[in-house]
Structures are given as C-alpha cells and as structure tokens.
Amino acid sequence: MKKYFILSSLLILSACNSQEEAAAPEPVQSAGFDMLRADIKNSDGEIIGEALLSNSNDSLFLDMTVSTISPGSHGFHIHTVGSCEAPDFKSAGGHWNPTGAEHGLENPNGFHAGDLPNLDVDADGNASLVQLALGDVASGAADTLTDEDGGAIVIHADADDLSSDPAGNAGPRIACGVFEKI
Q1: DSSP state letter for 142
Q2: Which of 74, 85, 111, 159 is least surrounded by Cβ atoms within 10 Å, i.e. has the fewest?
Q3: In angstroms, rounded to a whole number, what is the distance separating the alpha carbons of residues 112 and 116?
C-alpha cells in the first residue's frame, strides 16, 4: 500500500509539474556509489542518450534523456549485468532484482527494484525524465550495480504491461547503456 501511495504521489506531482523538470536530490554517500552514468546506445552502437543514477539515503533517482527512438511507450528497466552487446543486448541479463520479487509495478506481489514506469517518447523520438526508482532498495543493495559484473539500463521496443512476470512483455531490447561510477 505504501509503495502505491508513493507511486500515486509521484504521478500527481509530475502531472502538476509538467512544464518544469523535477530535480533529483543531491546524492550522499550511503552505498558503494554516489552517482552512476550510462551512455545509452542503439543496436548500431550510436549514442542516443544518457542516464544518470544517483543514490541518496538508499533511494535511487534516475535522470535520463534519449532521442531517435520510435514514438510511443517503451518499457525500460535497470538490468543486472553491465554489458551491452548489440544487436540484442541480452548480455545485460535480467532485471535488477536484489530482493527476489516478481515483475511489474502493478503486480500485487510487489515488483523488481529495476522495474520502472514506461518511457513515453514524443512524436520527434525524444524523451526525458527524472524518476525515483521505486523498488525496495535495502542498505547496500545498490552496491550490486557496481559489483564485478555491474549494471545497465535497457530500453525495449514495446510498452511494459507492468504486471507480467518476468519482463512485462515489453518486446526486444533496442537500446542499452552500461552504468559506470562518476
């Protein structure tokens, strides 16, 4: 219930603040990183965007901008492996899920820490957002994004249905970026 209240509050705030971009709080040292950055590349290896993941008091905030993606809704998630081998990006592994939850923000059994709402791309192929990563991120869990195999952000071809386990039927992976400490 608490997670749905937080999600509802964020959606209301973003609707009220649609003309201004929300700003992530200043990161503080509470896990193995303050901020991670990923260049997001398409299957041709072209950089089409950037993702910044900041860690503040065991809450993760994602600030992302992409371009040249087909208009519409796209599923996107934080993945467990810092590898983006084109063309299918399967090397990024599954969704980041340090608590062993099921997939989907609307799943009554909870959701992966790496699950995010759909990315809405405008008619010109551009999207940007600042998003609280809503999953349960216990102290130290974020360290797994900077462990030996790292972590990545992956964008899918289709919208995530927000409930189907394990990946939301979001279709093929079309873009990927490996997180690196900055």
Answers
A1: G
A2: 85
A3: 9
What distance in Å separates the CA atoms of residue 12 and residue 9, rounded to the nearest whole number?
Answer: 5
pLDDT at residue 82 tops 90 = yes
pLDDT band at 58 (very low <50, low <70, confident <90, very high): low
Q: Bigger pLDDT: 119 or 28?
A: 119
Helix, coil or strand: residue 113: coil
Of residues 119, 106, 116, the one with CA closest to residue 162: 106
The per-residue b/e assignment along 103-122, b for 16 or more CB within 10 angstroms, e otherwise, is bbbebeebbbbbbbbbbebe
Q: Render the burial of 24-54: b for 16+ CB within 10 Å, e for the rest.
A: beebeeebebbbbbbebbbeeeeebbbbbbb
pTM of the model: 0.77
Q: Residue 160 carries which DSSP code?
A: -
What number is the average pLDDT over the span 57-79? 88
